[in-house]
Amino acid sequence: MNPEIINLYIERLLKEVEELTKNRLLIETQLKYTELINGNLQQKLKEFELQLEKLNKKKSKEVSDTSESF
Q1: Residues 36-66: pLDDT tens digits?
Q2: Triad 34, 31, 16: Cα angle to 5°
Q3: Is the pTM of this model over 0.70?
């Protein structure tokens, strides 16, 4: 084969590998960021669920206290 063709092929191949590597790294970074955000949201959800549970218990206790007084 012609050395010029081989050099062009290698040059294009290297550019393709570089682009694919950039894309893979970007996607992996986006995934890690999304997982981090998801973890934070899961933690907040648990906290809100606990707060809601406490409020529901408090409300049901108040309702039972007022119904007992009648």
Answers
A1: 999 999 999 999 999 999 999 888 877 777 7
A2: 150
A3: no
